[in-house]
Amino acid sequence: MKQSNTKVKLSETIDSKYIQQHLANERTYLAWIRTAIAICGLGFLVANLHHAIRGELTPLYNEFATGIGLGSILFGVIIIIFATINYLDKRKGINSQTFRAPRALIIWVSVLVMVTIVIVAFYFILLV
């Protein structure tokens, strides 16, 4: 008896046609998640530092530090939400070959990250 050398062809999915693009999309998504975690960590840093020296600060500093901490955490959660939406939109665009780079999201998040950095820097400058 001869063995058949016919290969079983696996069904090709739409995703498998664009593997590299999907992997790049996943790496970008994970980079956004790391950015969100870093922004949240910055908020925790300010809150912990603030609690360590709280006795020396005025009530205005207390409100400012609380605002930075909560704002950073909220901003991190917003980044995760928008990154997930962006990832799913890119996935659909890659598969349908109608991908467009998200210019507005990049500008919006960049401005908010810069504003967060300036606010945190202002807080640390006022402490000195």
Question: Whole-Å distance between the termini?
Answer: 87 Å
Q: Which percent bin holds the helix content?
A: over 70%
Beta fraction = under 5%
Structural class, from secondary structure content? mainly alpha
- Helices and strands, in order, run as HHHH
Number of helices: 4
What is the overall silhouette?
Answer: elongated
Largest sheet: none
> Measured on Cα atoms, how large is the radius of gyration?
23 Å
Total domain count: 1
Low-confidence stretches: none
Number of DSSP strand runs:
0
What's the mean pLDDT score? 83
Transmembrane segments: 29-52, 64-85, 105-126
Keywords: Cell membrane, Membrane, Transmembrane, Transmembrane helix
Subcellular location: Cell membrane
Protein name: DUF202 domain-containing protein
Describe this protein's structure.
Keywords: Cell membrane, Membrane, Transmembrane, Transmembrane helix. This is DUF202 domain-containing protein. It is found in: Cell membrane. It is a multi-pass membrane protein. InterPro entries: DUF202 (IPR003807), IM_YidH-like (IPR052053). The protein has 4 helices and no strands. Helix 2 packs antiparallel against helix 3 and helix 3 packs antiparallel against helix 4. The radius of gyration is 23 Å and the shape is elongated. Helices cover 79% and strands 0% of the residues. The model has no long low-confidence stretch (mean pLDDT 83). It has one domain. By secondary structure, the protein is mainly α.
